Amino acid sequence: MAMPAETDTTSPKYLRDKYAIVGVGETTYTRGSGITTRALGTWAVRNAIEDAGLKPSDVDGMLSYQSGDSTFSTFIAGDLGIRPNFYMDVFGGGSSTEALIGMAIGLMEAGMCKAVVIFRAMNGFSQVRIGGTGARAAAPVSGDALHGRAYGWQSAGQMFSPTFMRHMYDYGTRPEQVATVKVIHSEHASNNPKAFYKKRFTVDEVVSSRIICKPLHLLDCCVETDNGTAIVVTSADRARDCRHPRVLIRGVVGRCNKPRTDMHYQHGPISTVAGHYARDILWPNSGVGPEDIDLTGSYDAFTFTTMLQLEDYGFCKKGEGGAYVSDGTMRLGGRRPNNTSGGHLCEGYTHGQNMVIENVRQLRHDADDSCPIGPDGKRQHTYDYREGGCRQVKNCELSANLGWANPGTGSAMVMRRG
């Protein structure tokens, strides 16, 4: 797809296609990794740099995000021989990947760096677990958590469920419709050699699984895993000399919020999420619209988060999200596949980075050659030949990634094959 160049440097359009993701890397997705987040981060960053065809000395910027559960950038940099001209470790979760990609672009635009690696490393099952279990169980309650705890909101599911319930009330959305998100993502994961869960589920199995907190069943919830993930961003010009076809960054929205971020339920409608506001930045800046997108990567901490994001970013009309996620549009072979790796529901939980990694591979047209390289230097093949198959989306040119931290905060990015 030929895109016109923008010469007005005061316009956000000037940044369209000026920067690219040139390398992506992961560890395996496991439970009980038995190694530190420092080792996981070093493993993932090394893989991303090698994937780009670069050397550690070619990278001079490092960004990471965590929630008190990871390792600082400087340790990873030292382990790999990277000398950063800029580094930053952000306290954040689900809306961080796209936001930090935007920050990386700003650093390079300001002439501070020439290539930036962004990583997330977490022992999300064996150490610090979301919801106050694991290593976090003994941590004191403070800040905004004092307010949420009064309402019984300790886990993400408890905090988000009022939004899900309200959508069901406002629009008649049915659990069976939203359960299809899990069904479709599990189908995709069954074709993904690195997915933690490869079992295919049915709608009946999802809605028959035990209730965690209404309306969330067990199988509406994401998997918890130990893993590291990383991506390398550089200029589109430098990307020409890298190993793979360029994946150009068309537009980014970083951490767009509803009017209240401390207690978004005080500003309605509560069945609307931050994507409602982010889309007014994303689509004009990227120069495309939802109808142009070939595949999506939506943050699926729960089945409902995918539905709400796709709806509020304009892939369907408000209130029609239940129909959109259950009519086959999101399946491989459908009009607009979503989370082709299986996402957080099935592949592994990374606070959003693995969906960006997957869409980069899809746009490079090499999604079926993505088994991670292990510490022994060998590719970690774990195919289930009874269900495994191709998951590459045919002729995909444009993707959208939709990040989520909570109903009131979101981020997004459009990428295209260069």
Structure description:
The structure is a single chain. This protein is of the alpha/beta class and 418 residues long. 31% of the residues lie in helices and 18% in strands. The protein has a single domain (14-129, 221-417), classed as Peroxisomal Thiolase, Chain A, domain 1, CATH 3.40.47. A 9-stranded mixed β-sheet has the order 3-2-4-7-1-8-11-10-9. A two-stranded antiparallel ribbon has the order 5-6. It is globular and about 55 Å long. The protein starts with 18 loop residues before the first strand and ends with a strand.
At a glance:
The chain has 418 residues and is of the alpha/beta class. It has 13 helices and eleven strands. The strands form two sheets. The protein has a nine-stranded mixed β-sheet. Strands 5-6 form a two-stranded antiparallel ribbon.
Summarize the SSE layout with pairings:
Layout: E1 19-26, H1 37-52, E2 61-66, H2 73-80, E3 86-91, H3 96-109, E4 115-123, H4 144-150, H5 156-171, H6 175-189, H7 203-208, E5 211-213, E6 216-217, E7 226-235, H8 236-239, E8 247-257, H9 275-286, E9 295-298, H10 303-312, H11 321-326, H12 343-346, H13 353-364, E10 398-406, E11 409-417
Parallel strand pairs: 2-3, 2-4, 9-10
Antiparallel strand pairs: 1-7, 1-8, 4-7, 5-6, 8-11, 10-11
Spell out the key features of this protein.
alpha/beta; nine-stranded mixed beta sheet; 11 strands; about 425 residues; 13 helices
